[in-house]
Amino acid sequence: MRKDAVSYEIGKFESLMVSLRYLDLAKEDFDKGGLLFQAKRVKKAYKLVKEDLRLLMYRCDKRYLEDIAYFLFHVEDWFAVYNKFTFGKNLLDPVKLNLMEGMREYPEEWIRKIKEEFDAPNWNHEEVKW
Hints:
Elements: H1 3-10, H2 12-33, H3 36-56, H4 65-86, H5 108-119
């Protein structure tokens, strides 16, 4: 089943929330060990979140396209750093994946906001509010 079909089946926002939780867990694990195999998990999680956001950006209130675009810029910057510093390394090698000057930081505040809104009572998960 294609990812967009899966997203539709389990709900537009549920898919994003699951992907964000997966990303949180992958980042926590990488922060503890800093090894390439852990960085690969973060990369996979970012790909899932990126795909969910790509699907949602066509349905959201147009005021929030900038927030989504900035998150996607962060993901692209992170991938560039990943590609630069992991080339030729083994799975158990330590890696440092710090963003370089001018790159977009992870949008903590925006992610916190959409997670809070998603968990709010009486929030219709089929309607984009952000």
